[in-house]
Amino acid sequence: MTNKGFRKDFLWGGATAANQFEGAYNEDGKGLTIADISPGGKLRMPLLFSGDFPLEIDREKYIYPNHQGIDFYHRYKEDIALFAEMGFKTFRMSISWARIFPNGDDQEPNEAGLAFYDQVIDELLKYNIEPTITISHYETPLHLVKEYGGWKNKKLIAFFEKYARTILERYGKKVTYWMTFNEINTAIMGSFFTTAMRNATEADNFQALHNQFVASSLATKIAKEINPAIKMGCMSIYATMYAYDSNPGTVMAREEKNRLFNYFCNDLQVRGEYPSYALAYFENKGIEIEWTEEELAIIKAHTVDYLSFSYYMSTTVSIDPKHRDKQIQGNFFGGVKNPFLEVSEWGWEVDPVGLRLALCDLYGRYGVPLYISENGLGAIDTPDENFVINDDYRIDYLKRHMAEMKKAVVLDGVDLIAYTPWGCIDLVSASTGEMSKRYGFIYVDLDDQGNGDMSRHKKKSFDWYKEVIRTNGEEI
Ligand code: BG6
Known about the structure:
This is Glycoside hydrolase family 1 protein. The chain has helices at about 20, 45-50, 70-85, 95-100, 110-125, 140-150, 155-170, 190-195, 200-225, 250-270, 275-285, 295-300, 350-365, 390-410, 460-470; strands at about 10-15, 90-95, 130-135, 175-180, 230-235, 240-245, 305-310, 315, 325-330, 335, 370-375, 415-420, 440-445, 455-460.
């Protein structure tokens, strides 16, 4: 294949989230967020989904690896220099809401928090790295949960609006690419990270989502008022969904699951309207969402400029009872084991062609530029005594996904603008709170028990990715 596919201004880079790598969880006036009280370890997801954990730090019972993260807060200069050495064109990061408004409902912002992001953004710009900022990545301020009950409360719309206005006013002249809510569609399954609610009903989850759609559109409106050149995006997980067999019942089950998970939030944020299948779903399930004409008009008027999504794996739907014991769990969702796919060490199915299918599907449906804001392989790296890490498995994973991206661009005509592999520097896993689940091109000397000096080391994939970027994807 030739290189004619990737745009000249293609944004190669890497992605992170404040709560998973900044550390300094209580420094310089930062308040606690939902991430700060989410227990680390393999039981994290079951706990978060059951709601059976305290809304406070309990060090007797739990560990909290996010508290120190990888200390980007103090080491950002060194880390950004490494990103620059790889030739990053963009760096996706999030702003921690509670660094800016420690409780979420404060009258005045915390200047120390704002100053920290001034420095990070300026450091990136020094190397001509375009920041891509996620406004909310799994860290609603804890006070908004305790006092207001999380995102089903409409008061959060105004708090978010104020937070978004504050950071857009501060950084909106320097930063072009923004995203509102990370993986917003995980709210459908009731993810605490997204909704900031425990033990919620399905109706609560949809109410929380509605409030976030309004908040997202208000942020888009404000962004354009501040700087019309800003590009605002939405962000969902996309899971390419297969019907296990050609039984029409299976295909229908896949259709129902697919539209709710892969389309619903994008339909709202790109097209600006509740789709008819969702209205029918609400009616049949007796779900009543509190919305006003004014809110619906805001959602309609302020849609996003581009669609971003994370892609790690596909999923397979079956209605055959004999598949009940062949379930496999992945990134917030599960399905039936696909016999054609291998799995990662964490049981996530690896499916590069699924990425091309995702790109074709989303571009065909929405026709807006696409941004792959996360992709990658969580794997155990074993450095030798000199910290040499030959992560060929990671290179192989990324190579195969990039090859499919390229086909989507060259053969399918998809307008793909960016690719930011997840965890470009090792960081704390969102689903398990582990350090040992590593995605990075840069190794961080830190284990699950917190041992290690946090020194940074280039893996083999570091030089490989640098070459990919240098040749704009010609050398994959
Ligand atoms: C996405 C999240 O779901 O997947 C990230 O946006 C997360 O925050 C990433 O870290 C990888 O998942 P995990 O569980 O392996 O860290």
